[in-house]
Known about the structure:
9-stranded mixed sheet; Enolase-like, domain 1; single chain; 14 helices; TIM Barrel; binds zinc ion; binds 2-phosphoglycolic acid
Amino acid sequence: MLIKDVKAKSILDSNGNECIEVSVNNSTASIGYGMSRSSKEAIAYPSQGVGFVVNKINNELALKLKGMKIESYEDLEHVEEYFDTKTLGHNALVALEMAALKAVGNEVWRLIDKTAFKLPTQLGNCIGGGAHIKANDAPDIQEFLLIPRTDSFEEGFYANLRAYKLIGNKLNTQRKDMENAFVPRLSCMEVLDLLHDIILKIKDELNVKLELGLDVAASQLYKKGTYVYKNFSNERKEKSLTTYEQMLFLSSLVQDFNVRYIEDPFHENDFESFSKLKKLVKSKCLVTGDDLTSTNPLFIKKAIQQDSINAVIIKPNQIGSLLKMREAVFLAKDNRIQTVFSHRSGETLDSTIAQLAFGFQSDYVKFGIFGKERVVKLKELIKIEKSLILP
Length: 391
Ligand code: PGA
Ligand code: ZN
């Protein structure tokens, strides 16, 4: 593929924030923005804002890229050589790289691994709170996740959607957060009780097994050395937990509610507590790094050395380069750490991440359950699944 034309523009993400869209020839990609970010993330935009980046790309970079040949994932090296992330930030680079891959071939996954065959398992955010909504009466844990254990991705998608509808019927509020997860006035334990009922209903109705996961996003709870919950108990009283108490609390949830996945159980620099929890829950539960590792090979290496995680979140714009992201994925895979490709809370209608997740044979995807920005990514994987059955 020869780059003939590069264009950038500013669009709005699902939170109404400005974000970047880049086109290469006739292929377009865009990148959202997370509201529960780690301090280790790549800079998304320079201080001059998205408009400045758009102008620089359209008036300067586009000319430099014209005539460049991109035929493989490796060739993104050439794009990165010309792209000054110090001036333009990283979100535009990732959008440009995705658009370039799409311009090479619409099925981006084939550029990564032609022999890919396994669809990932879904982690669907159905009830949420924490930093994803401005409310004092929301659950403190950022995401309650449903994990459909189905053979087919499509069946898992519909099971999660049905569970989501049942949750909506059961709650006396339709309040939702940034990812379209319901936000009831319930404590964590009340939410888990409710989800336990929903799991039984889905088993009855669809004969599908759903399991539970949590994204604690604990950096957002961490204040002056303790984890502060605003609605800890069923009486919705505030409670502060020491690191040790946080560990006991979370391992009790694994024990009592069969929680199989916990993301960011401690703050983003506490590699040691991750490792202690991992030992405590053994193979019963995936202990996952998101803010801890920030898709950065350096932090993933540290987590491996300290035996802190058995799964890792992969967010392309967290590290801000598709080549670095690939390094992070390979490092995880080489060390038998499961990979979880993830959307951001502020999303666009772009679905390239689904292509990347399948190409890299990710174990899980966390793309949400409902809302057009979420469904478009899930549907992309259903499309891939169907194309494998009916080539
Ligand atoms: P985000 O984080 O709001 O930064 O996208 C979501 C998450 O913590 O997984
Ligand atoms: Zn997270």
